[in-house]
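agent> fetching stored inputs for the magnesium ion docking request
agent> found them:
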Amino acid sequence: MKNDRRDKNKHFFHFVCYFMCNKGKQNGGEHMEVIKTKELVKQYKNITAVDKLLLNMKQGELFSLLGVNGAGKTTTIKMLTCLTKPTSGDAFVGGYSITKEPEQVKRLIGVSPQETAVAPNLSVEENLELICGIHGFSKEKTKKKIEELSEQFDLGTVLKRKAGKLSGGWQRRVSIAMSLISEPKILFLDEPTLGLDVIARHDLWEVIRSLKGKISIILTTHYMEEAEALSDRIGIMKEGRLLAVGTVDELKGKAGCDDFEATFVSIVKEGV
Ligand SMILES: Nc1ncnc2c1ncn2[C@@H]1O[C@H](COP(=O)(O)OP(=O)(O)OP(=O)(O)O)[C@@H](O)[C@H]1O
Ligand SMILES: [Mg+2]
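agent> prediction call returned; pasting tokens
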């Protein structure tokens, strides 16, 4: 129980740190390739979580990273968002090196991590206010932002409730709303719809669709229909490497399947 609380506080601390660093001039929008990795490696003792990853993502693109449990998706996102350092290699996010210019990278990004990052003892409204405060928003701007996000994420009924007492799906919604406060150029969504009911998932797809083209989005998911519905391109990871990259149709063509789930299974199991 105590550890659980400590974990939640730790996640929240990381989250706040992001936003502390996520102030200032937004830069990097002029780069056509918003993410470019160079032989990115993350080694945990004898586990190679990410193995010389080569990944390019274009500006304004919605790129989905798919892969079975343990494929290296979250580790990739953690490196690209400067939460963890690569063992070797580098990546450029908005033109900035994650190893040499992490502060500049953090100014461009918003993150909704796999473990949601709400402060459990604060109300939803207080969570949103806190992040607005970190960004130096005025009272008026804070109020406007909260109204806007409440409407976008349908948070009206939960604004006064303690975030930690909400269901997992609602916490996820709040977490994503918080990641958008800074109006990031690049948004990382690690399993954004995990645990959401069907209606909430479809609502969130609409929110994600409304952001498409305006900002670059990298998301991970285990829901094939989600990747199919939202992505411009998809990368399929296995054992820390990208097995295949392409549009839904390109990947289907590659695997010779009409169905995307069958395509995924074929690529992961047979490497085609
Ligand atoms: N902090 C860590 N210490 C040791 N090993 C780790 C750590 N984080 C991740 N790993 C290992 O790295 C590999 C990749 O994990 P990662 O969390 O990136 O996978 P994932 O693709 O996000 O999986 P999932 O779909 O289950 O979220 C796994 O073998 C995992 O056990
Ligand atoms: Mg993961």
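agent> quick read of the result: The longest strand covers residues 33-44.
agent> awaiting further instructions
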